[in-house]
Each structure stands twice: as C-alpha cells, then as structure tokens.
Write a structure and sequence with these properties.
The complex is a heterodimer of chains A (about 220) and B (about 325). By secondary structure, chain A is α+β, with helices and mostly antiparallel strands. Chain A has four helices and ten strands, in the order βββαβαβββββααβ. Chain A has two domains: about 140 residues, Endonuclease/exonuclease/phosphatase (Deoxyribonuclease I, Chain A, 4-Layer Sandwich), CATH 3.60.10.10; about 70 residues, no CATH class. The N terminus of chain A is likely disordered. In chain B, about 20% of the residues are buried. The chains are: A alpha+beta (about 220), B alpha+beta (about 325). The interface between A and B is large, with 47 and 46 residues.
C-alpha cells in the first residue's frame, strides 16, 4: 500500500504488508535540507512498531557513514532518535562508497542514501551499492537482498459437491438426527437454547463428516 | 459424430460442429432466458469458485487516521457499520398516533415455511452453520423435521426470545464496484451471513408481520420498497401518474431523488418497538423483537483474515426503557 503519509509531506512513503500475525512496514524517505520529513516523522510516529526497513535520501552527511567527510551533522540526533524509536539500526553496504555523485566537478561525492533495518530480522542478506545501475540519476542504486522462504498459504475451503454421494449422506444425516431432536417441551429460554444448540451440533457434525477439503489454486476462476 | 466416424467425410465433420454450435447456443440462451425471467439473478451465469480479492494496494484510512494494524482495521469497519448506535431520538410524535386494537398472532403453519423457503435461491452463500437453502429445502421435505423447526419458531415467539445461535454472524467485507479509490471503509460493503435456519424463521415472521400490517392498512400506500406485490414498476407508474396529473393542471413536476446513507443501521429499534405496539401487536411479539434487536455478535472477514467477535448492541435502551 503506497500512499503519502500526509499530503503535505510527499517525501515519506510507507508500504504496509499484512501477515496473519502482524502488519509490517517499509518506509521510504526523501528528507530535504531542512529535514522536514525527519521532523514530521519524529513528531507523528503512530503504530509503526513493526518497521522492517527504512531507506532513503536523508541529505545528511556525517563522518559516521562517510569516512571521507570529517564533520558531524547537526541533524544526526534527529535521525538516530527516529531510527531508535522504530527499533532500527544502520545497515552499511559491503562495498562502501559515495551514494550521490556531485553535479559540479569541484564538489565531492557524498554518502547521503542510507538503509536502516530491524537487527532482529534474519531475512536480510547483503546490502550493496551499484553505481553502474544509476544511469542518468545522480544517485547510486542501493540493493538489499531479502530472503524469501517458501510457505504454504492455506487457501483451503470445505465443501460438499452438489448432487454428490456426500451431499446425499449429509442430508440423510441431518434429517435423521433432526428427527431425533425433542422439541416438544420447550418451556424456558434455557431449554430453547439447549434444543437449538443440539440442532447446531447436528449440522456441524454432519458437515465435518461429509465435507471435503478443497484447495483454491491459481487455476480457480475469480468471480 | 457416428456418421463422421463411419464416413470420415469433412462434410459430416462440419455438420457435427455446426450441430454442437447450435445446441450450445440453444442451451445458453435457454439458461439466460430462465435467469432473466425467473430468478432475475444475472450473476448466476458466472461460476463463483474463488473469493474476490480485495484491493491490496491502498492504505485504508478512517477519520483521517491510517489503519496501521489489523485491529485498527476491524475497529474502523465496526465503527462505520454501527455508526448510529445510541443516537438520541425524539419519539413524542408517535404518542399522537391512534392505538390500534390488538392483533391476534397465530402459531406458524407448515405452508408458511414452505412458501418462505420456495423463494430462496439454492446458490446463496450459507452462514457460519454451512447449511445452504438447498440443504434446508431437502430437510423440510420431511414433515416431521419441518414440525420441529416450526416448534422452535413458535417457542421463540412464546418465550419472547431470539436465540444467540441465530444472532451470531460473519460479516464479509467486499469492495463496492465502480469506485476510483478503495482507501476508506466507506468504499466497502458489508454482507452479513447468518445461520440459515434462523434466516428461514425470520422470513416467516417477516411475512406474517407484513400480512398483519397490510391487512390492517398500517402500510403507507406510497411505500413500494420491500413490500410484497409492489415493484419498481408500481413506483414508476405512480410517478408517471403524478406527472400527468400535473400536466392537466399546467404544472411542472420536479422530482428529488436521494439516497439515505446508512439507512438500515440507522433504524432505531426502540422506536420500532413503539410502532409495533401502536399497530396492535401483542407484548409477546414486541418483546421478541426487542430480544431480536439486542446483542448481535459478528466477526468481520477481510480476504482470508477474520476478526475477533464484535458485539453489536443496537440502541441499547430498548430493553431498559420497556415500551411505555
């Protein structure tokens, strides 16, 4: 789900993906020289606990990730605060180098594109810089390997085919058991609940006795 | 085909193909005619094999807040579909209406059940009990089984009680068609799947209620929706009549068409029970409806995900205030 976090800050994109257990986030940031995006996120973090990766152009030059740059940025505290609040750590590339090439030959190239990941997530492989892929862009491509495990997605339904032997037996079972149900002496709400619960059990037992598991596959038609 | 097998002639093969084409066309034309003229459910022409996936590329936001977790999504859906809970209403005008004589509510008959179930499509999705109308139709072909269900239905009215088993439901959320964006719960459409036996009893009660209201002239003659033997055509004829009557008097007729958002969830059940009393239904039936309208647990289904049970307490004052 890619959508700007706020219409006035078009430089923060959040991708959310759901699993059965949780909702995870991937955050992509472009923070301008005033660090509007960082300030906005630091003040407006809402339920982004399961962030797995934060990546982007932070426009922050700092000796911590660029050994050729001898200074520290005044914005580093904002960035560290944000990363810590999301439980993320800097993920340096295996082939360090500039991530942005200067337009002007008199300026030096810089490291301003950074990746932060959740250190507890074992799914990440290597982070590499690919200056050869940048083409007309002044920014280098950052590639992170993400392990994808094979998993069975349980797309199973229970059903009884129309006009099948199972359907015949199912109807026979619910009919015979309903006939055995005593509905004559319903004199209280409790008795009524008990009778209907018996009826529900009759339907449920018959269903799971005769229904068959079916897998929905990619060949099944959509409606 | 036999002629082609013996002769091997290309002419016979062409005849065979042509006959297949004609037979197929006839079969599908018959089916389309039957669906368009009898049950009027064009979607029966399609196979419903796989669940329609919900759009997954947009962020759902509710009241300008993004739903960042499943729990927030369930709460957003639940709040929207029950947004009219506990709204105060002014019921003073109902007291000015005349009180009708009490109507005798008779026990249900077998025929009422048979009539109600005859109109139900065997293709509708069953509720949490997995019982489809097709199964229930087969079940009640046995008179003794039908009598058992009738006895349960009569006991519900006599004991003024609607069972929790019949109230529990699964609310399936599907996208509304023709929307540019599906980023709000309003762009989705809840379909409540209830247990089928309970639905059958409800249909019979609904038919009885409509009969009483119609026989005693409690229905407004201008109401066409959901009324038996009234159709959209009747509404159209009535509108045409008004326009033509206006022409005779040299008037221009203006028509305002509007849609009331969240109409059914907005119905106040306390007010409904007052109306039922005014039209002369006995206290058993009114108390039954009060029980019917209270505490409906439902779980929401979004793609393959299911929410925990949410309790829908419709204007909770119903049972507390009674029917003074």
């Amino acid at each position: 789900m890619i959508k700007p976090f706020d219409p006035h800050h078009w430089d923060v994109n959040i991708l959310a993906f759901h699993t059965d257990q949780a909702t995870n986030f991937i955050i992509n940031i472009y923070s301008n020289s005033n660090q509007n995006a960082l300030h906005f996120l630091n003040q407006n973090i809402i339920n982004l606990d399961n962030t797995v990766v934060m990546i982007g152009d932070f426009n922050i030059r700092d000796n911590n990730w660029d050994p050729n740059y001898p200074h520290h940025s005044i914005h580093i505290d904002d960035l560290v605060t944000l990363a810590e609040s999301l439980g993320l750590e800097l993920f340096p590339p295996i082939n360090p180098g500039p991530t942005r090439f200067a337009d002007n030959p008199h300026d030096s190239n810089s490291v301003i594109d950074l990746v932060f990941i959740n250190p507890n997530n074992s799914g990440f492989g290597q982070h590499t810089l690919h200056p050869d892929l940048r083409k007309p862009s002044d920014h280098v491509s950052l590639i992170i390997e993400v392990g994808i495990k094979e998993a069975n997605i349980d797309n199973v339904i229970w059903s009884i085919c129309k006009d099948s032997k199972e359907e015949e037996n199912f109807i026979k079972a619910i009919t015979n058991n309903t006939l055995a149900l005593n509905t004559m002496d319903i004199v209280s709400k409790k008795a009524l609940e008990t009778v209907v619960q018996h009826l529900a059990n009759i339907f449920n037992d018959a269903w799971y006795s005769y229904a068959k598991r079916k897998h929905i596959t990619k060949y099944s038609k959509e409606w | 085909m036999n002629r082609y097998c013996t002769s091997g002639s290309i002419q016979h093969w062409k005849e065979f193909k042509s006959n297949i084409h004609i037979a197929k066309r006839k079969f599908f034309n018959d089916k389309i005619y039957k669906i368009s003229s009898s049950n009027k459910r064009p979607w029966d022409l399609m196979n419903w094999v796989k669940k329609k996936s919900l759009p997954t590329i947009e962020f759902i936001s509710y009241k300008d807040q993004p739903c960042n977790s499943l729990l927030e999504l369930w709460h957003a859906l639940h709040s929207l579909y029950n947004s009219m809970e506990n709204r105060p209403i002014n019921v003073s005008f109902i007291n000015k209406q005349p009180q009708a004589d009490q109507i005798q509510w008779l026990s249900f008959s077998k025929q009422e059940f048979k009539d109600a179930i005859a109109k139900c499509s065997a293709l509708l999705t069953p509720g949490p009990d997995h019982i489809s109308w097709r199964h229930l139709k087969s079940l009640i072909t046995s008179d003794r089984c039908l009598i058992k269900i009738m006895q349960i239905a009569n006991a519900c009215i006599n004991l003024e009680y609607w069972l929790s088993h019949f109230k529990s439901s699964n609310t399936v959320v599907i996208p509304k068609p023709n929307k540019d964006s599906h980023n709000s719960p309003k762009s989705f459409h809840p379909i409540i799947l209830l247990n089928t036996t309970g639905k059958l009893i409800k249909k019979v009660i609904s038919n009885c209620l409509q009969f009483h209201l119609s026989a005693n002239s409690f229905l407004n003659s201008h109401q066409f929706g959901s009324i038996q033997q009234c159709s959209t055509t009747d509404a159209g004829i009535y509108l045409t009549h008004l326009i033509r009557a206006g022409w005779l008097k040299q008037y221009h007729t203006s028509v305002i068409a509007f849609d009331i958002a969240q109409f059914f969830p907005s119905l106040n059940h306390y007010f409904l029970s007052l109306c039922l009393k005014k039209v002369g239904l006995n206290s058993n039936v009114i108390q039954f409806f009060n029980s019917y309208h209270s505490n409906h647990p439902t779980s929401y289904s979004w793609n393959n995900l299911s929410s925990p049970l949410f309790d829908v307490v419709k204007d909770g004052m119903v049972e507390d205030r009674g029917t003074e």
